[in-house]
């Protein structure tokens, strides 16, 4: 319970749950309590898939059993359309009470004073020091993560064994396996047009920075324009360009492949040795292809080692102008209790952001755990970096898949960073 809470007369018990399906890639989930005086909270998110909604529904139902005078309506949109809609709603003064954010969107909302400070919530103390370093900014906290997502390399164990190839542990080994399959007429790596290639580049580019503990000074210099973001990302994107040129990636197909949807369907066929995407989709791949023998391993993008890219994910924020701030904070506090985060972590095939939190037990992602425990990781969209790295690197990936030379892409990145600094 927060210190801000006031006494409230609770009304009758939960009357029912209604699922409403809208047109297009949209879900609306409405939970209606039978209470004489009801406060309605509007919750907007980008977790759209049915398996995601089931867990969110369970958490919302639990909250409403404890707060029968509050009605929660959850609406979701799929993919990047969600962030476009969120920005429009907030700009129009019609933002929802609670919503999900990512690094880039939060930069804009914070700048405009549109997100509430959540630093007084009781659940804050449960987060790890690593997560707190991401969440806290000048003593304020504008978002709370519920999972730690991981990006790795999906490996088709059966196909690799059939061709007498091994799971790669470093870049040279990965290149050798890719060269073999390309020679057999099989495109080695399935990629999508968003998160596949950029996470490879971010991981390779910033790994030594994190290992040496220099991220604070490096990101401060990049934010101030004393150093270029491109100087760190170029080595990783050079690998991407090389893979495209050598046919290890089908550029045209990748350009038209949506993340954790089209790529999963293709990998589930069992005809490709590798796929680059988020480990949170492992459960979905397993359900799509129960007989497929696969695992998700660390990214083999270093000369002599591998790594994982992680993000504080499924981030929840509260609209600073919500007419129901107190109720919205109560909801966030309930949602981020250890039991509820555990449910989401398990379903999302992710790691926990909490002290003593348990990672997902889904067997296909267990090879990632040692990397996480040994801190062989890079944060994909670090809050210390005040530039929209997540969207900028997605654009560069598309440019490279479209045939743009790396040098041109890096020049474009430098120009975009200068423009962004001018708006900070």
Would you kindly provide a written description of the structure presented here, covering whatever features stand out?
The chain is of the alpha/beta class and 424 residues long. It folds into two domains: 14-145 and 313-347, Periplasmic binding protein-like II (D-Maltodextrin-Binding Protein, domain 2), CATH 3.40.190.10; 149-311 and 362-423, Periplasmic binding protein-like II (D-Maltodextrin-Binding Protein, domain 2, 3-Layer(aba) Sandwich). It is built from 17 helices and 14 strands. The strands form three sheets. It has a six-stranded mixed β-sheet with strand order 1-2-4-3-5-13. Helix 7 packs across helix 9 (229-245) and helix 11 (262-268) crosses helix 12. The model is unreliable at 1-24 (pLDDT under 50).
Give a concise summary.
By secondary structure, the chain is α/β, with parallel strands linked by helices. The chain has helices spanning 50-66, 81-91, 103-111, 129-135, 157-162, 171-183, 195-211, 215-224, 229-245, 251-255, 262-268, 282-288, 325-335, 338-347, 369-373, 389-401, 406-423, and strands at 14-21, 26-33, 39-45, 70-77, 98-101, 136-137, 140-141, 147-156, 189-190, 274-278, 294-297, 308-313, 315-318, 377-379.
């Amino acid at each position: 319970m927060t210190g801000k809470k006031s006494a409230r007369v609770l009304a009758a018990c939960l009357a029912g749950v209604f699922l409403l399906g809208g047109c297009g890639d949209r879900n609306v989930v409405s939970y209606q309590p039978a209470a004489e005086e009801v406060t309605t909270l509007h919750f907007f998110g980008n977790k759209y898939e049915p398996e995601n909604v089931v867990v969110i529904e369970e958490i919302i139902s639990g909250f409403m059993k404890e707060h029968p005078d509050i009605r929660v309506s959850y609406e979701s949109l799929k993919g990047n359309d969600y962030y476009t809609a969120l920005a429009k709603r907030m700009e129009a003064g019609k933002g929802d009470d609670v919503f999900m954010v990512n690094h880039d969107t939060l930069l804009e909302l914070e700048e405009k004073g549109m997100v509430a400070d959540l630093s007084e919530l009781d659940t804050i103390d449960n987060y790890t020091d690593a997560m707190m370093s991401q969440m806290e900014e000048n003593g304020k906290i504008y978002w709370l993560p519920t999972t730690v997502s991981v990006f790795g390399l999906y490996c088709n164990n059966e196909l690799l064994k059939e061709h007498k190839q091994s799971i790669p542990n470093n870049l040279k080994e990965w290149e050798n396996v890719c060269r073999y399959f390309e020679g057999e007429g099989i495109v080695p790596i399935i990629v999508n047009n968003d998160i596949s290639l950029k996470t490879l580049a971010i991981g390779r580019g910033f790994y030594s920075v994190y290992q040496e503990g220099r991220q604070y000074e490096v990101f401060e210099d990049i934010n101030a324009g004393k150093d270029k973001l491109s100087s760190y990302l170029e080595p990783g994107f050079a690998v991407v360009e090389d893979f495209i040129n050598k046919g290890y990636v089908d550029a045209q197909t990748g350009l038209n492949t949506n993340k954790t949807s089209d790529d999963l369907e293709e990998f589930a066929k069992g005809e490709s040795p590798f796929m680059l995407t988020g480990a949170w989709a492992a459960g979905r791949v397993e359900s799509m292809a129960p007989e497929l023998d696969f695992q998700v391993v660390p990214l083999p993008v270093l000369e002599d080692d591998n790594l994982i890219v992680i993000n504080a994910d499924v981030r929840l924020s509260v609209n600073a102008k919500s007419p129901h701030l107190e109720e919205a904070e109560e909801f966030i506090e309930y949602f981020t209790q250890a039991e509820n985060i555990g449910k989401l972590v398990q379903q999302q095939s992710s790691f926990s952001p909490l002290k003593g939190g348990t990672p997902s037990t889904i067997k296909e992602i267990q090879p990632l755990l040692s990397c996480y425990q040994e801190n062989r990781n890079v944060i994909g969209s670090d809050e210390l970096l005040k530039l929209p790295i997540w969207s900028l690197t997605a654009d560069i990936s598309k440019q490279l898949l479209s045939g743009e030379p790396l040098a041109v892409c890096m020049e474009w990145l430098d120009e975009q960073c200068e423009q962004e600094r001018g708006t900070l």
